[in-house]
Each structure stands twice: as structure tokens, then as C-alpha cells.
User: Fold Nitronate monooxygenase domain-containing protein from Coniosporium apollinis.
Amino acid sequence: MSPENRLKEDYPWTQSPLIACAPMRLIALAPLAVEVSKAGGLGFIGAGNDVSMLEPELQKAQQLFAAAEHPLPDTLPIGVGVLNWGADLDATLALLRTYRPAALWLFAARKLSDLQAWTQGARDATAGATKVWIQVGSVADAVAVTLLCAPDVLVVQGQDAGGHGLERGAGIVSLVPEVHDALLAALGPEGEAEGKMPVLLAAGGISEGRGVAAALALGAAGVVMGTRYLASPEAEISRGYRDEVVRASDGGQTTVRSGVYDKLRGTIDWPPGYGGRGVINRSYHDAIGGMDHEENVRLYNEAMKSGDKGWGVEGRLTTYAGTGVGLVKGVKGAKEITQEVREDAKRVLKSLGSRL
Ligand SMILES: Cc1cc2nc3c(=O)[nH]c(=O)nc-3n(C[C@H](O)[C@H](O)[C@H](O)COP(=O)(O)O)c2cc1C
Assistant:
């Protein structure tokens, strides 16, 4: 079965190419996830490392679908995402049993082998109804995780991605095709025939239809976007953060992946090798310039009190965003973003076909 048909079978409300919204921790909540899925994409609720916030969000999602009279398939047509280095397995499985979300997204385990219990647990909890998505950032991790867990979907995260990812990594232009070829080599042709080949989605730096079209050419069946959805009213962020995402451009120069923002915010439990990409601001310059860490934290905490003014190039509050931030030109509803990006991608692909 083609990856596109597998997606259609597993998530029957979705349209091709699949556009998914990343489970951005405490930013992608029920309103964003539901709007994306209502538009034929797949939205995720981002629980991060603490799943205690999930149950009310899942209940809200149920209510939002009911209010929209959206036909519910066998599962709740959204996913939930966790950061495996901190999330509680048993609590998550109990929620999967009760709410049956269509997908569980796993990321950043301390050891890849930890993901086996999560994958098996999710499959047992819902008799396979909840599909397992795993985000990886290297060819080696893609192969290892596929052999260990046989995920339904592998999200291949390139270096351009906003938020956390591997400090050392490649962009999707080389990463996605190399992952594809390495998986084929590892699984063999029988692997593909037996359905062991996960569906590949590309993430990192994709903010509009041209990026989606490129991702499909690289071997992905769809994409995951985070940064683009930050500029939607449904994203749970302050106006100052959203304004900064819309303002920033030239993301290769104006964003950086580092541990500076984690240290300032006290989110220091990430496994080694991960860093968060965000817009370069005063806090970052001061940290790199040698400012005493305690003083930088004090100024960060001061800035928290100033509200929306705390963001910006001369601000101190963190704007996690990817290099694709310059392609985000304004605020649009999550439904409109999903439909527009998908339709633009189709238009680009058609026009390329007619040019050859
Ligand atoms: C603000 C923000 C928060 C994020 N939080 C998470 C998270 O909690 N869990 C996760 O797996 N990925 C998280 N990501 C990374 C996404 O999964 C994805 O790889 C990324 O957004 C794709 O790149 P893009 O931002 O260029 O679209 C986050 C990304 C952003 C921008």
C-alpha cells in the first residue's frame, strides 16, 4: 500500500498531502489541534514532559468536535505528543484507553530503547487504533527506532526546525532521502511489502506550499509544521511572541539552536545533544557575551513582568521558532493555514509537472 493510502486508511478525515501540526508543548492545545484536523490535517496536543494537563485538553477536543458536528471516526481525530524523557508512561496509556486519540507522538527519549515500552503500550491500550509516531533527527536514529519499534509514522526532523531538536543535524533536503534509502536497505524489499516501512513525514523549515512540494519530492508523504502555526490565533502564546514570529525574517541568521534559552527558563532536563532553536535576542547576546548566568536569569524574570514588551530583538523572553520564520508573513486561522498550504503545494507540483 502506498504511504498516501496508509495515511488515508489510518486517518480517514485527512487529505493529501498530509499537513500535521506539531505537538508544541503547552502551545498546541485542543483549539489548535482540532482546527487543523477539521481542515483535513492532523493536529496534535503538545503535553511535553508532564501529561497531567492532557485530560482536560482531550475533553475540550471532544467538545469542540461535537459542537462542530464533525463526524468522529473510530478514534478522536487528533494526536497527543509527549517528550519521553519526562512523561509518565502509565498515565499516558490510561488516557489513550479512555480517549483513543488517533496518534501518539514520541520524541526525545533518554535511550531509544525506552520507546519500545511506549510503542507496545500504546498499541495494547487501544488495540492498535492509536498509531505511533516517532520524531527523529538523524539517519542512525531513524534506522534504530524503526528496527526497535516499527513506528507507523517517522517524523524526520531537520536542523531548521523550531524548538528542540538535535544540536548537530542536517536539513531535510539531505536527511529525508538518506533516511528513506537507509530504511529500505535495513528492512529490505520484503520490509516494504510487509508494511514495516514507516510513513515518512518531513519537519523543519517548512512554512508554506513550496516547502511541502519539496518535501514530497524528497520522499516524504506529508509534512509537520510548528513555526507556521505559531502565527495562528489558536496557538496558546502571548501577542508579543506571535508578533515576533511574524516580524522575524532571514531565519538562518536570526535564529539559533542552543541551550541558552533552556538554561534561562530552567528547562534543563533535556537529554544531552538537544538544543532549542529560537530568535536571537538580548538574553542570547548577553549569555554569549559572558554575562553572569544569575544576572541573566534575573533580567529574564524581570522581563516576564513586562508582558508583550518582553519579546523582540532587544527583548529577553524566548521566541522558539525555526529558520522558516521569514516565510510567516501574518496571522491566519489554523484551518486557513492548513487548507492554503495543502492547496499551494498541489498547485506547485502541478505546475512543475507541466514544465517538464
Ligand atoms: C514553539 C515550538 C515548540 C515545540 N515543542 C515541541 C514539543 O513539545 N515536542 C516535540 O516533539 N516537538 C516540539 N517542537 C518541534 C516540532 O515537533 C517540529 O519538529 C518543528 O516545529 C518543525 O519545524 P518548524 O518549526 O520549522 O515547522 C516544537 C517546535 C516549536 C516551534
Notes: DSSP finds 15 helices and eleven strands in the chain. The longest helix spans residues 172-193. The first strand starts at residue 18 and ends at 21.
